[in-house]
Amino acid sequence: SGGPDDMPQEIWDKVKNHPCYSEEAHHHYARMHVAVAPACNIQCNYCNRKYDCSNESRPGVVSQKLTPEQAVKKVVAVASEIPQMTVLGIAGPGDSLASPKKTFDTFRMLQEQAPDIKLCLSTNGLALPDLVDEICKYNIDHVTITINMVDPEVGAKIYPWIFWEHKRLTGVEAATILHRQQMKGLEMLTARGVLTKINSVLIPGINDEHLIEVNREVKKRGAFLHNIMPLISEAEHGTVFGLTGQRGPSAQELKAVQDACMGGANLMRHCRQCRADAVGLLGEDRSEEFTLDKIEQME
Ligand code: SF4
Ligand code: SF4
After folding, report:
1. 25 CA to centre of ligand 1 in angstroms
2. Contact by Cβ (8 Å): 186, 125
């Protein structure tokens, strides 16, 4: 017990040892990300492709891209140095399902070589419905989908384009397809018993009030957590946003939306927006100790 008030006990039992879901566990269990997914199949207005996917990471971070073989080598090396290492995630630097072979090769090899490590992935959801069966093969117990809207008119302000069936689509048409795929993917994961968390990026003036509706829709479809993250808008990150002059929310604005969504899908307030190659306990980042050249030397 000790879980959030409105979280069912059976879900809490599954996530209480997961550093990303439990305030308590994140002091004792470590997670790492490997950056094996370079490509992306959509464009978010707040994303600068020079950096990691800003759906999961803080903007302005560049992770070291790895091949699946290098990633597996790294995970095995980290797990032998950091015994609390329990969770391996793929969260970029692009979308984990836009280059699915790299993601699933990594999971397959890890499942063979380090079967105790839990796997998770995060995605914008566009390719998700087609890959749910594949996801279920690898015993992935957590998926994160970034969902910033449930109304394609709002979506058209956030996503300038998607790449879909070999074509680039724009505007409301693009946002309609993305929305459909996100809802379908979430429903399919729920139907198969895969725990699914939703990330939303709070963009003042674009989706702030709308996120309450997002919260209602994702809860209805079985999301067990809804993590509302602030848009981080800082000039030193290269003015990440095609939304020209777009500011991020103040702490009060963020809290107001989070409070308005309480009693909806349980909100997760301690997500640190870790980089795509983060290593260690949640409050720390030991990625510099485990760069590729250092791992090669460990052998
Ligand atoms: Fe960037 Fe991630 Fe959006 Fe792709 S899904 S455009 S990598 S923020
Ligand atoms: Fe966990 Fe959030 Fe960090 Fe991902 S970005 S490892 S969900 S705290």
Report:
1. 28
2. yes
> Cα of 273 to ligand 2 centre, how many Å?
6
Ligand 1, atom 4: nearest CA belongs to which residue? 40
Ligand 2 binding pocket mutation candidate from 15, 23, 26, 31 (most atoms within 8 A of CB): 31
**What pLDDT shows up at residue 264?**
61
Strand partners, 120: 89, 142
Contact yes or no for 91/38 (Cβ under 8 A): no
Q: Which atom of ligand 2 is nearest to the CA of 122?
A: 4
Distances (CA, A) of 212 to 45, 56, 265: 21, 20, 10
Q: Tell me the pLDDT tens digit for each residue of 176-226.
A: 999 999 999 999 999 999 999 999 999 999 999 999 999 999 999 999 888
Instruction: Give the Å distance between the CA of 278 and the centre of ligand 2.
Output: 9
Question: Has the ipTM of the complex gone over 0.90?
Answer: no
Ligand that lies nearest to the alpha carbon of residue 95, given by its number in the listed order:
1
Q: Where are the beta strands (DSSP E) in the chain?
A: 30-33, 42-43, 85-90, 118-123, 140-146, 161-164, 167-170, 195-202, 225-230, 266-267, 279-280
